[in-house]
Design brief:
Order of helices and strands: EHHHHEH
Largest sheet: 2 strands, parallel
Shape: elongated
Number of strands: 2
Number of helices: 5
Distance between the termini: 22 Å
Radius of gyration: 26 Å
Structural class: mainly alpha
Strand order of the largest sheet: 1-2
């Protein structure tokens, strides 16, 4: 399901750091040695991919696509009608009187404006409801990320929804990718069953531009992010 979210997801970073600096006496004294600490564990997660992969996300985005099916068909009908009029005008070019041609051109322009307005309205409404679903899931996912980080003694978790150079991570190996682990934890907590296998369904109204390109899945191996 190609869903490009309208740049609605914020980078998630959980940072825990310890520093020590001590001074004693009234005279200048050397700082106390910093205590030895274990190496900081780092993890990466594609928040966008995680939201889409949850059972709740799959269920709700599929339902959203079905909800917009009538709008999709309406836009397709409007566009087909508009294209038909343009072809007829082109086929009759040079055969029409000026006033007849001007009348057809005016009608095409009016239909084009109506189509563009309907397309933009559907796009805005679709993106708004996409955003509502994503934000709702993200709010519930936040505490799980915090819990996972603490239970696994992690010092940093970075969102890699946007690949480099748009995102901060140049490269990350599969061993630090916790996306699937968080999706599994979310599904277990939500209690929403996995959707039944089905043929791919449209996720946006026809004639409507996608909200935003979906971020690629996290790259692994030796390829740059």
């Amino acid at each position: 399901m190609t869903i490009k979210f309208a740049r609605l997801l914020l980078a998630t970073a959980l940072v825990f750091s310890l520093t020590a600096l001590a001074q004693t006496g009234s005279a200048a004294a050397a700082p106390a040695p910093a205590p030895a600490t274990a190496a900081t564990k780092v993890g990466v997660i594609s928040i966008q991919e995680a939201i889409l992969a949850t059972n709740e996300g799959q269920r709700d985005f599929e339902a959203l696509g079905k909800k917009f099916e009538p709008r999709r068909n309406e836009l397709k009908s409007l566009n087909d009608d508009l294209e038909s009029m343009k072809k007829q005008l082109s086929a009759q070019d040079g055969k029409l009187a000026d006033d007849a041609r001007a009348s057809i051109v005016k009608s095409i322009e009016q239909k084009q404006k109506a189509f563009t307005r309907s397309q933009e309205d559907a796009q805005n409404e679709f993106q708004s409801q996409q955003s509502e679903i994503a934000q709702r899931i993200l709010q519930k996912m936040g505490p799980l990320i915090d819990k996972y980080a603490k239970e696994n003694s992690m010092g940093l978790i970075i969102d890699i929804s946007n690949p480099w150079p748009q995102g901060p991570v140049l490269w990350a190996g599969p061993s630090v990718d916790i996306t699937k682990a968080l999706v599994d934890a979310y599904n277990a907590q939500s209690g929403v069953p996995a959707p039944a296998p089905s043929a791919p369904s449209a996720a946006k109204p026809a004639g409507v531009k996608p909200a935003a390109p979906a971020a690629p899945k996290p790259q692994t191996g030796t390829q740059p992010k």
